[in-house]
Amino acid sequence: MVKVAKDNSTEEKILEAARKIFVHKGMTGARMQEIADAAGINKAMLHYYFRNKEMLFETIFSQAAQKLFPQLNIIFESDLPLFEKIENFVQAYMDVMIENPYLPMFVLTEMHQNPERFYKKMKGEMNFPKPDKFLAQIEKEVKRGTIKRISPLQLLMNIISGTIFPFIAKPMFQMHIGLDELQFRQFITQRKKEYAGFVIDAIRK
Amino acid sequence: MVKVAKDNSTEEKILEAARKIFVHKGMTGARMQEIADAAGINKAMLHYYFRNKEMLFETIFSQAAQKLFPQLNIIFESDLPLFEKIENFVQAYMDVMIENPYLPMFVLTEMHQNPERFYKKMKGEMNFPKPDKFLAQIEKEVKRGTIKRISPLQLLMNIISGTIFPFIAKPMFQMHIGLDELQFRQFITQRKKEYAGFVIDAIRK
DNA sequence: GTCTATAATTTGATAGAC
DNA sequence: GTCTATCAAATTATAGAC
User: Does A183 touch chain B (CB under 8 A)?
Assistant: First the structure.
């Protein structure tokens, strides 16, 4: 069991506050003053600990990306049979997002609004999962005739779409359908159980 | 055939430039100077035509939302049989996004970062589609035993996810897989043809 | 390490000539 | 309608006392 270092140190308070503000308003929408207020400290402290807004943001963004991307390795690098792998991925990834519902949108927003920074970041520190193995596995199953003929890339997109998109569309969906927080959680719980089955039904012969 | 009023009037040049900048950088990330430059005019002109940044943004955002949301009525209000309706929706919606690949992310970002403005907007001018009819249709088919047992809401989410998400994840996907622009277009073309079939295969008995 | 006060910069908005 | 020049406000960043 790893100690997660949730001290109430000033640095940790800043990170927590910055996460909250950045994740909701993005880099350009966030205000240093707002972050300081949320942390219950002074604006000057932010600079003392993180030099400037840019660096504070980078820290938060890296942490977010680290939570999301390496998880993709579950689907890409394990040795499970295809159906179990799909099952595993959907459940594991949804668990991450249940704990951090705003992360996907945060990372995607940054990726769109500032692709340069994003790419630079990714090249370095991230052990960026390559899906080749998983795609090859799908191709193999298609050739063996175990599953229906489908493009591996399309299947991968289907799996990821159905897993991530609900968290991105949450506000739209809640407004459209009129779900409250509890109902949305129930919707997600059900989805975690059933979505892999949906995909498998679609490709099973 | 309706005239689309693509004059080269100053107002139209501003709108075009503002669209480009806002859609990529969002409300808070966009700079009035940048928009003026892109329009080939002076910053003061922006205020002359649209009073302030807020109102210019509202104009752009409304146009974007109008392109995306009313389309959902195709799926919700037509009288087609279920499978054809799914087929129709996927193709029609993907056509909209092929023409405007950045719209979905733009609207979603605004929805997340400024939900108040978004909700206010939606209440007024938008003829906001209610999915009740479509959900009831699914429920009916399940009861008749025509399709597998599935929650109507889950099925709706599956259809929408697979249709919209590829455009949102485009940069991530291109980077991960290494697709260039042409390859991505081909991927989308294939998807437009096949995704409805995937969904139908999953629910067909 | 933490604070208050203040500087420096960015940026949205306006005044006024043409 | 369009421009240049300028203002005013917001916001990041720093200096310096404790």
Answer: no
Q: Nearest 10 degrees: CA dihedral of A33, A39, A44, A49?
A: -130
Beta carbons of A118 and B171 less than 8 Å apart = yes
Choices 3.30.565.10, 3.40.50.720, 1.10.10.10, 1.10.10.60: CATH for A9-62: 1.10.10.60
Separation between Cα atoms, residue B75 and residue B68, nearest integer Å: 13
* B69-203 has the same fold as B10-60: no
Per-residue pLDDT tens over the stretch A44-101: 999 999 999 999 999 999 999 999 988 888 778 899 999 999 999 999 999 999 999 9
Determine whether the distance from the CB of A153 to the nearest atom of strand D is below 7 Å.
no
Cβ-Cβ pairs closer than 8 A, A with B, add up to 144
Q: Does A149 touch chain B (CB under 8 A)?
A: no
pTM beyond cutoff 0.90:
yes
Give the nucleotide with minimal C1' distance to the Cα of B40: D2
B118/A contact by beta carbon, under 8 A: yes
- Other residues' Cβ atoms within 10 Å of the Cβ of residue A123: 10
Give Cβ neighbours of residue A96 (< 8 Å, ≥ 6 apart): A67, A68, A71, A103
